[in-house]
Amino acid sequence: MAIVKIMQRRQVVIPKELFDSLNLEVGDYLEVRLNNGKLEYIPKELVDRDEWYASQQGRRAIAAALREIKTGEGKKFADVEDLIVDLDS
Question: Which of 8, 16, 28, 48 has a CA-to-CA distance to 61 between 20 and 30 Å?
Answer without folding.
Answer: 28
